[in-house]
Structures are given as structure tokens and as C-alpha cells.
């Protein structure tokens, strides 16, 4: 009986390992979300392998354990690939940016969210699914006199970018074909240094291949920007998803590792990062933190600080 249980469990675990390992053969959209959980699944599979070995000590059980540990280790290595260099330590940040998916039905927490935005001391705020903030816009605009989005009532209030400084350039476009106006590209002058700011909100990766098409459009938009650049928003995928990795490599984007987990909320720090803040040289992140309170959203917000590398000098924030 023990032998039968051993081989049944081994068969199920082999199948699960094979599914996760498909990332090394194909970037199939239906499995993209699973790829985001490679580290979590690897650890789960390792625990399952130990259980199998407890049922019966056999060479195949050790093979399953080894493969599980390799998947976990490679997931960690992939995260480190996009880690920001240690730059700007002890240097005053050029600017601070906050990004947060409010959640489109989060009306009861709208006042607290507006209070948090104002108290964040961020120079630029990127808010997604911002409809619940409709009745707080004028209060926000007093602190952030420059904005993009939410100009035509609550039905048009999705992506809202707030800034304490005027926009040098600004553009709102669509990525992919599923939803409109979820890509904002702008630039802001921070004390003589112009920085490109891009906000993106991607579709969930298991909605057919919509996200893949959105990433193609996003990459083209980033190609049009030169100089310091920050990309922030809700990607609905982790940095180790193959499609996100391809974007980061192509655009030479970096973040801080490990990224703070932003979803699911119930998992806290043990979740995954599907909301991101990336930077492209000569812009560098010096800090990346998760907001203390999710404020009723199903995502956690992020706040980051940046410096610009100018042959060892950084323009001061003003």
C-alpha cells in the first residue's frame, strides 16, 4: 500500500513540475500566471518531495526534490537579474514617486486614500482605477496642481497621474485592444533634470494573449523615450514571468530586489510583486517600499525614490 501511495504522489508531483518547467520551452499565455509563482511553487514542491520521501525513501523522490530546489533557486536568480546597483547612497533623492491601484469599487476608503496620497510627500503619484477618488479631486489638485486623467467625470477616471511640477510633455494612449487609455507617457523637469514618466496598467495574463500584445505596444512606447525613465503601474505579473522578463531585458530596466510583495493582500510579505516601479539608466532607484496599509484595495501601493547618475553627481531635488 505504501508503495502505491508513493508512486501516485510522485506522478502528481512530476506532472506539476513539468507544467511549471514549460516556461523553459514556451511562453504560453495560459501558464503565464503560474510562472509568476515559480518560487512559491518550487518551495511547495520541495515540501511535497519531502513528504513523498517520508512515505518511501527512493531515488526518484530525491530527483523530485532536486528539481524542486532548482526551480526555486532559478526563480531567485531571475529576480536578482534586474536588481538595481547600489547607487546614490547618502545622496538626496531627485524625486519621490508613489504608485497605487486604488481598486475601482473601493469607494468607502476613498477619503483615507486621498489623505495617504497627500501625506506621502511624493512628487509624482500614479493612481490606477482611480474612479473612487472622483469626489476628492479638487482636494488632491490643491497639493498636486498638475494632473493627467479624470478630466471628464467619474466614467473617464481610470489612470490618474498627479504631479507637483508642470509636465514638459504628456500623452495618453491605449495599449492592446481590450481597454482604453491605460498608458500615460509624460515628462517632468526636476531642478533642471527632465525625467520621462510612464504609467501602465496591463491586463491579467490569463485573459487570452491580450497582455502579450499590450507589452508589445508598451515596448514601442518606451523605445520612443530617451534619457532617464521610470515605468510604474500594475502589471498583473511578477518580474520572473517570461513576458515581463523580455520587456525588462529589451528596455534595460531595473528595480530593487527583492521587490515588495503587493498581491494577494492576505499573503502579506509572502505574496508576489505584480505592481512594479522600474527605472532605466541614468535614473536609479535608491529605495522601494510598500505602503503600510492597502486601504481596502486588493493591491498594496509602492513608493520609491530616485537619483540620476551624472558622472557621479546627482541633481538635487527642489
Automatic annotation (TrEMBL):
One of its GO terms (biological process) is GPI anchor biosynthetic process. The chain crosses the membrane at residues 28-53, 60-79. It comes from the Bacteria. GO terms for molecular function: endonuclease activity. Residues 98-299 form the Endonuclease/exonuclease/phosphatase domain. Pfam families: Exo_endo_phos. Keywords: Endonuclease, Hydrolase, Membrane, Nuclease, Transmembrane, Transmembrane helix. PANTHER family: CALCOFLUOR WHITE HYPERSENSITIVE PROTEIN PRECURSOR (PTHR14859), PGAP2-INTERACTING PROTEIN (PTHR14859:SF1). The keyword Electron transport does not apply. This is Endonuclease/exonuclease/phosphatase family protein. GO terms for cellular component: membrane. The keyword Transmembrane helix applies.
